[in-house]
Amino acid sequence: MAGQFYPGQRRSCVAEIKECLQQRTISQAVPETIVAGIVPHAGWTFSGSLAAMVFAAIKKRHEKVDTFVIFGAAHGYFGTTPAVYERGFWETPLGQVAIDEQLAAAVLDTGQAVGDSQAHRSEHSIEVQVPFIQHLFGEAKILAILMPPSRQAVSLGTSVGDIISGSEQKKIICIGSTDLTHYGPSYGFTPMGTGANALRWAEHVNDAEFIDMAVKLDAEGLLASAARNQNACGAGAAAATVAAAAKLGKNEGLLLAHTNSSEIMLRKMGTASADSVGYAAIVF
What we know:
single chain, alpha/beta, Protocatechuate 4,5-dioxygenase, Chain B, 9-stranded mixed β-sheet, two-stranded antiparallel ribbon, 18% strand
């Protein structure tokens, strides 16, 4: 997806990462230890600054991270079982990043996921996070897992938390990649009609319900909310992340920022839109 969701050349890629990191400051006191985060995955122009906030918060607390487990939304993967990219490396304009094959094997040994690298070929929700990791955590490995929005996300997330707990010599952090409500005629979702009031509902009611459940570590609740209210395209990824965080001893998350594409279009481009997609940055 380089050249589409984010720049295709190294120099411009690094420049935009730095810009994203500078666009928003973290005003809250972040946890002393961070075990997980939730990030959006639109084009960097829209959601890059929020993703950057999460990785910046992690960098603030943990100079070195050995592996990022990235749970991705399953936009084009229609299997019912989580799909692990189990070996090799990924390549972005910033170079290659290795897959944590030992961790991948441990996840596959749980019997709750399948090894399927082809499932990842056209998915952007994980890939757009990787350059941030490469820029801030140059030695880190990744483990990419596509997560369908089913209860299996909760059980696998819990199992990943167990595996991490037993890997005391490594710092492993889970990242869940999801956007929030896709509202408007272009998305075929207009339960409150169209216009400014409808977009406010999408942000302040529909998104807010999902965010509240994520912050409270209610993995089952956010899956149900997404199925009922269409307020997350990566509910499985978020649920797995929340379940892992809970297993790792967390009892709440911290919302760093929440916005939407309509607000960003108006602010950056001076253009209003009938459609909007929500974005949130959360750490645990």
